[in-house]
Structures are given as C-alpha cells and as structure tokens.
Amino acid sequence: MLKYDLVVVGGGPAGMAAALKAKECGVEKILICERDETLGGILEQCIHTGFGLHYFGEELSGPEYAARFIEQVEKTDIDVKVNTMVLDITTNNVVIAINKQDGLMEISATAIVLAMGCRERPRGAISIPGTRPAGVMTAGTAQRFANIDGYLPGKEVVILGSGDIGLIMARRMTLEGAKVKAVCELMPYSGGLTRNIVQCLDDFDIPLKLSHTVTEIRGKDRVEGVTISKVDGNLKPIPGTEEYIPCDTLMLSVGLLPENELSRSVGIRLDKVTGGAVVDQYRETNHEGIFACGNVLHVHDLVDFVTQEAQTAGEGAANYILGKKEYADYRIHTKGINGVRYVVPQRISMDGSEEPVKLYFRVGQVFTNATVKVTRNGNVIYAKKKRKLAPGEMENIVIKPEDLQDFSEGDYLFIEVEG
Amino acid sequence: MSYDIAIIGAGVVGSLIARKMSKYDIKIALVEKCNDVAMGTSKANSAIVHAGFDAMPGSLKAELNVRGTKLMGYLCDELSVPFKNIGSLVIAFSEEEMETLQELYDRGMENNVPGMKIIGQDRLHELEPNVSKRALGALWAKTASIVCPYELTLAAAEVAVLNGVDLYRNFAVNDIAFENEIFTIKAKNGKEIEAKYVINAAGIYSDYIASLIGDNSIEIVARKGEYLLMDKSLGGVVNHVIFQCPTKMGKGVLVTPTVDGNILTGPSAKDIEGKDDITTTTDELDMVRKYTSYSIPNVKLNAVITSFAGLRAHSTKGDFIIEPSKVNPHFINVAGIESPGLSAAPAIAEYVQDIMLDVCGRLPKKVKWHRTRPEPVRFRELSTVERRELIENDPAFGQIVCRCETVTEGEIIAACHGPIPAVDMDGVKRRTRAGMGRCQSGFCGPKVAEIIARERGKDLLEVTKFGDNSNIVVGKTK
Ligand SMILES: Cc1cc2nc3c(=O)[nH]c(=O)nc-3n(C[C@H](O)[C@H](O)[C@H](O)COP(=O)(O)OP(=O)(O)OC[C@H]3O[C@@H](n4cnc5c(N)ncnc54)[C@H](O)[C@@H]3O)c2cc1C
Ligand SMILES: Cc1cc2nc3c(=O)[nH]c(=O)nc-3n(C[C@H](O)[C@H](O)[C@H](O)COP(=O)(O)OP(=O)(O)OC[C@H]3O[C@@H](n4cnc5c(N)ncnc54)[C@H](O)[C@@H]3O)c2cc1C
Fold first, then answer.
1. Fold (topology level) of A328-419
2. A112 CB under 6 A from ligand 1?
3. Can you give the pTM of this predicted structure?
4. CB of B120 less than 8 A from some CB of A
5. A326: pLDDT confidence band, cut at 50, 70 and 90?
6. Is B266 close to ligand 2, i.e. is its CB under 6 Å away?
7. How close, in Å, is residue B209 to chain A by CA atoms?
8. How far apart are CA B298 and CA B254, in angstroms?
9. Is residue B470 one of the residues assigned to a domain?
10. Of B169, B326, B370, B377, which one is least surrounded by beta carbons within 10 A?
C-alpha cells in the first residue's frame, strides 16, 4: 500500500491550489490524482479569456491560468498521477485509484482533499420531449469537440440554458462560422455572468430569449429542428407560443452538478441545495480529515474564487496533518433565507480562532438596490447595500471575529436579502 | 449469396431463432435494416420476464410466455446476460381490484404459472415498504424476472455469428421475389441475397414484409409506450416489479428496478399513426409520473436521467402469429410479437425450430456448435484481484473512459472487435454501458467517439450515433 500525508482527488484549479497551499504549509508527501491526461481540469477546454482578473489582476485564458499553477506544481515535489481515476475512498481514508501503469492502487492518506469538479446536467434531467437523434449535446461536450479535438459539433445551433458555458459556446460556434439561432433561457433572467452576455451574445447579435424553453426536438438521424415556447410564471410552456427553429444541433447548458459519487460513498453529508458537501470554514467535511473545495463543493462561476477556496482547504488539511488543528468547542450553522439560496460554509467551527470568516452565497432571483443582511438571534450584525444581485453571480461577505463571540452549540447565523 | 434460410429482423426474436437454427449444418443469413442488432422494440421495452398470468388461457401467448420464462434464466446464464429473478407484485387499491387479483391468479393457474400467491397488506409492505400505504394487497409471482433485453439480443446474435450465420446490417428489405423455389430478397441499398426459406421476424414491420410476397393477412398497429429511467441513487426504492391492476383504461404503469440498478417506470400506451414515431411527449410522460407516484408515493421523480419510447407490435388478431404463410409455405411469419414477446422469445425460437423441421424435413446438425459466446469483461463487476490481473495483462483496462458506469478503454476496444463489432456510439453504449449513466455521455462521448474512430480506422467525421446520417460532428474547426 502506498502512503501519503495528503491525497488530492482531481487536478483542476481547486486540486492544484489546495496541494500547493498544503506544501507551503509544510506537508511533506502529497499526491494529486487526475483522471484526465493533464492537470488543469475544465480550464484546459476554456480557450476564451476571462480567467484570473481577481487573482492575478490580468485576463488570462483557461489554459494560461492553469499553466501558472501547473508550473508551480512542477517546481515542488508534489507527486502527480495523471490518467488516474479515483474509484473509491474507504471510511479509513484509503484511496483506491487506477491507471495503466500502476494498475489498481490502494493509497493510505492522513488527509484527503476532494476537488473533483462538476459535470453538466444532461437532457434527461430536464426531459425534453421529441426524438432522440444525434446533435443533442451538452455545451461542455461541444466545447471539448471544438477546442480539444478540433471538430465542429454543428452548423446551425440552438442553445438551451444561458449558463456561462452556453454563452461562451455561442460565441465560439459563431467564430467558427456556425449560426447560433437563439439562446433560450427558462428563467426570466440569465444564469450567466453579465460580462458573458455582453461579450458572447450582444456583440454577435445572438438573440437571448428569456422565459423560453425547448418543447420538442425533431429529426430522425440528426437534429432537424426544435420547437421553442414561452413559459408562464410557473415555468410551464404557454400553448400557442410555439416557434419552430430549424437547426442541426441543440446544445444544453442547463446547469452543473457537483461530482459527488466519491463523497457519497464515504458517507460525507451533502447539502441538498449546493449538491456538495456540508463543510466548515476550513472546508472540512463531517468526515474528519476529508476536505472539499472548488466546483465539487458548490458551482463557481469564477476560477479566482475556486483558487481562494482551495487554498483555505489546503491550509485546513495541512493543519490537520501537522497536528495543528484546533478542535472546536462547538459549531454553529449558517443558513440562507429570504432570497438567499445557499451559503458556504454551512457551519462554523468555534475553535477560538481570531480569523474572520468569509461566507459565499447565491441568491435565488434577481434583486436591485437590495440589502444583504446577516442576523443572529434577531440582531443584525452585518448589512450592506447592493446595486444588483443575480443568481449567476456568487457573492461573499466577511464576518469579523468579534461578531462570532458568545454563540452556543447549534445557533444559527441567517443571511438574507431585503428589498 | 444464397442461403438455406434468411431471417428478416435482428430483434430478440430473429436473433434467438438464428441462434437456435445455427445448430444445423445449413447456411443462414440474418438481415437487419439498422446499423446494429437490437435497434427496434427489443431495445426499448420494460425488460420484464413476465410470470405468465396475463395472457388468455389457450392462446399461443400464454403457452410461449410460460415456457419462455422457464427457459430464460438458464439461457441468460449460458449467454452471460444480466438477469435477476426478483419476482413481481400486482398491487390492488380497492376490494374490486382484489377481485381482479383473484382473476389473474386463476388465469395464471390455468396457464400453469408456478409460484403465485395472493398476499395481504402487511406482507406487501414488509416486502416493499415504499409501496403506497393505500394498497390492500398484491398478487406475488415469484417467477417474474428482469433481464437486459438488448444484451440478450446481442448475445444471441453473436452466438449465431460465431456458428457461421451471416449478419447483414443496413439491409432494409424492400422487395422479395420467388422463382424456382428460391426467394430473392432485395434491400434498399441495392444488395440482394437468395434463400430457400424466409423467416419474417421484422417486428412492427412484419405485416409489410409479409405483404412483399402478397400475404396481406397480417395487420400490425403500433402502440407507443413511453418510459422514464431514473438514476441509480434511487436504487432500492422497490425490489420487485410493481404492476398496477389492469383496468379498462389499460395495464397501468409499472415501476421496476433494472438489472443495472436503475429504476424504470412506464409505459404509457397510445396508438399512433405510422410506425416510426418513437418521440417522447410531455403529456404521456406526465401521465407516467402521475401513475408512478400512485404506486410509490415518495419516489423522487426528479432523478430522471433519460426518457425513451418503444413501439408495441399489436396484431389485430390479438395473438402471436407464428406459422407458415398461406401464400407460400416456405415463408414463415413470426408476427404480432407484442408483450410478453421478450419473455416468450426463447420459446418462440423453439417453436419456430419445430416448424422449420416440419417444412424442411430432417436437417443435419453441425459437428461442433458453440452454445455460447466469450463472456464480455465487465470491469465494474470485478473484484480488486481480478481487476489487477486484467490490467497487468492489458493496460487498456486501467483507463476509465466512462466515469458514471466505470467502463474502461479495454472494454470499449473489445466491443469494437467483438463477434458483432460495435460500429457506432449507441452500439458501444449497449455493449459496454459507456454513456448510459447519469451524465448520459456528456463526459465520455468525445472519448468514445475517438476510440471508435481509431479502432475502425476512420475519421471522427464518420462516427455516428446510430448509423445513417446520425453523425456526431459535422466538420473541422478553422
Ligand atoms: C466552460 C466553463 C467556462 C468557464 N468560464 C470561466 C471564465 O470565463 N472565467 C472564470 O474565472 N471562470 C470560468 N469558469 C469557472 C472555473 O473555471 C471553474 O469553476 C473551475 O475550473 C473549477 O475548478 P475545479 O478544480 O473545482 O474543477 P475542475 O476544473 O472541473 O477540475 C476537477 C478535476 O478533477 C478531476 N477528477 C474528477 N473526479 C476524479 C476522480 N474520481 N479521480 C481523479 N480525478 C478526478 C477532473 O478530471 C478534473 O480535472 C468556467 C467554467 C466552465 C465549466
Ligand atoms: C412499451 C413496450 C414494453 C414491453 N415490455 C415487455 C416486457 O416487459 N416483457 C416482455 O416480455 N415483452 C415486452 N414487450 C414486448 C417485447 O419487447 C417484444 O415482443 C419484442 O422485443 C419483440 O421482438 P422482435 O424481435 O419481434 O421485434 P424487434 O425488436 O422490433 O425486431 C424487429 C427487427 O426487424 C427489423 N426490421 C424491420 N423492418 C425491416 C426490413 N424491412 N428489413 C430488415 N429488417 C427490418 C427492425 O429494425 C428490428 O431490428 C414490450 C414492448 C413494448 C413496445
């Protein structure tokens, strides 16, 4: 059996940043397992720019952003195994991984960081009626065909869902000479970043049809067209609003799901809303010594925050490994209410730390000129005016250590929007 | 090429007949209009081996269902096809429905169905805690089972091929001539073969195939059934096949585990015009959802990973039609094979064998007949030791391609070079399960396409989802 202090599952930006941070904190034997051919995760197929504005203060492409971290990893003695899939994690922290060279490995780890990223929701998850021809694919699959394999996935495209990948693929396909006929979004607002709507749709005159969905797929072998309909306030298609759009491709960008099969198999508690683990401010899960960060924890729209979060997890893992972890006297919970869909971390370990705690959250609808409030026992401990809050943009607030005094076991910190 | 027997249609029926007849030292062709076997109804059905209490006593359906179900477990074991004897429960919600259970039970007794029992509420909820608390009792049939229908079809066709049967794919029969005791069977793509005997196992199109020799006695109407397939995380919500009581409105929907641990619910029932409408519709799927929650109130209906539809080949005569045509006794119709056609298929093959021995006279047997096919590797089912050994012999088994179903590159390569090579994405999917999981090939799709292209010496541009013009990509990037 191989033995490591820290095994990181997934070599995307989250996995790399966590490993690097743990190294910096003094952890000796670290292994990153990545099932793809290279480190970099989803970034390797994001050849557009827009990465690193917050973290590096410059605009990089996905592979460029990843390259900075890959270089750093290479400079250290962190072991990296690519083309290596982690199949299982046992409750006593043994990681079962597999690759062509080493075959099936059992790796015992003092701590584990989960950084498996997320996957796209498939067609079935939204049950679009009609035929089941070729040419229906997720935007990420299309992106892989175009950016890694060098093939055009379609010539006349309708995109369902206005998540960032969908928006970016709208631009990419247009630049490749394909015609993107429409981007349909079920909700009355886009799930993507405003900057992507401007740069990817508006600049190319691609119509964004809000409150619309695809109600039928037609075509026997390859997609021949789709019917789209307007939806009402309950998101149900309105009869009579059908519009048929001929196309050879339907791209789906209908959301991302954290990849938590492994977490589930070790019995890690998951948050129903985020689909990721329930963690404390160090990103430690309910299973001692197992940490989670990045898209496997909750879906991020900006890689910069992934990196930050992963550093937190890397440091937490290092403290655990090096015996510096302060055990909590008790824990309190965070909870989003009144328009706040979720908050990460979901719990705060009260271990006497003097550090501020950063809370990430997302709202469930668009708010303008609203106030974000944090309350405990009915008292407001934080309030800030926001010009705009949208489900597509993750927000964060920092809670000062003095505001975290004198809680007791099981108390709640509520985050809400007013306005 | 000339053959002794040409079998039209490589569904579960045609393939099992081909396997059975491949015992004899004669030349056999199995022709199929699609790019692969099991592309018709045999790939889209409830996958249940029915106990046999549904069909009317005395009908061919009843006889062949009960016999087929008896043969099925052994056959699947021999062919290494996933099969589980889990039993079925028809649940009753009213006293009236309890009476229906008794009728079904009596009918089952007449059909010689073994292992049936009517159970009360307590026993039912002990067996299936998630069944609606309003259910009063159930008919428990212990011989009912679940099977993988496309794997069974493929396995049967593979055995046939290993025993010298020629499989013609993309051979859509559109003309049959009969001269000097020989049939000339022509396909849409211009190819033709000759045969002394024809077995018509063309499923929903068996009436059309019969009409090509002037036999207009068969009428098949297509009745569509739509399904929802749920994620494995729902596994265990039910452990038996759960039926609702048949009413005047129809058979109701069933909820069942699949051999792979997913949950399947459906089918709806709707007569359709034409014969190739396998679209899914909101109305029908909503109905499936509604009936599903009637049986199992707390099933999580949002865990759907895909939906699909299949076509029942309903004969207006109401029973299986398995007999030489009145127009030409060398042309055997195997038509109207609607449910329980899958369950009955092993018995249908026997029955057709008897007919063939009748019309052909004694047939010589092959000296050596392969009963089965090489067992496909299923990495996800292996133990650690077995996995290790496999990778040591062939590192391709150390590369996971489909992460949802844990399918290795080695398995995909094997599927591309099997007795009936997979030639497209869906072919790989049916053989290996790559792309059948919760992400529905979102992640492995491009990789599988690359492997198919590489193994078949083609460009990615030529790789299709299921043949014809179902290409995956349409050009190269700039
Ligand atoms: C298409 C797209 C466009 C984006 N655009 C922008 C943008 O313009 N600007 C921006 O700042 N951010 C953008 N983002 C967001 C950002 O890039 C992601 O949030 C970030 O890459 C997530 O990092 P991660 O490490 O959590 O996940 P990933 O990058 O997905 O990495 C996870 C890694 O884990 C591996 N893995 C998973 N399971 C296993 C296992 N069992 N064994 C071994 N390895 C495993 C995976 O192969 C993968 O490499 C975009 C994201 C996407 C998807
Ligand atoms: C909704 C539904 C649910 C069902 N559930 C069950 C169940 O749970 N249990 C059970 O026992 N049975 C069930 N059945 C019935 C069972 O699926 C069928 O009886 C069985 O699959 C029929 O097999 P087949 O080989 O006759 O037809 P098919 O599988 O349809 O095979 C016919 C083949 O002929 C080919 N073909 C057609 N025309 C031509 C042509 N011109 N030239 C060449 N080839 C041609 C087709 O491509 C096809 O491959 C169900 C059926 C349906 C529709």
1. Immunoglobulin-like (2.60.40)
2. no
3. 0.90
4. no
5. confident
6. no
7. 22
8. 15
9. no
10. B326
Residues B133 and B278 reside in one and the same domain: yes
* Tokens, residue B132: 């609606």
Taking only residues 265 to 304 of chain B, the set having a beta carbon closer than 8 angstroms to any beta carbon of chain A reads 276, 278-282, 285, 302, 304
Domain ranges of chain A: 1-120+256-325, 122-254, 328-419
Q: Which CATH architecture has domain A1-120+256-325?
A: 3-Layer(bba) Sandwich (3.50)
Compute the distance from residue A292 Cα to the ligand 1 centre, in Å: 14
Nearest CA to ligand 1 atom 18: A303
CB-ligand 1 contact for A274 (6 Å cutoff): no
How close is the nearest chain B Cα to the Cα of A119, in Å? Answer: 7
Q: Which residues contact B210 (CB under 8 A, 6 or more apart)?
A: B200, B216, B217, B218, B325, B331, B333, B335
Would you state the pLDDT for residue A124? 65
CA of A104 to the centre of ligand 1 (A): 25
| ipTM of this complex prediction, to 2 decimal places | 0.86
The mean per-residue pLDDT over the stretch A294-315 comes to: 95
Structural class in CATH, domain A122-254: alpha beta
Is A221 in the B-facing interface, judged by CB distances under 8 Å?
yes
pLDDT band (50, 70, 90) for residue A125: low
The helix/strand/coil state of B103 is helix
Domain that holds residue B240: 84-146+222-311
Q: What is the DSSP letter of A56?
A: T
- What total of structural domains would you count in chain B? 3
- Apex A382 CA angle, A377 and A386, nearest 5: 130
Enumerate residue ranges in chain B where pLDDT < 50: none
Residues B411 and B357 in one domain: no
Of B276, B285, B465, Cβ closest to residue A127? B285
Distance from CA of A130 to the nearest CA of B (A): 4
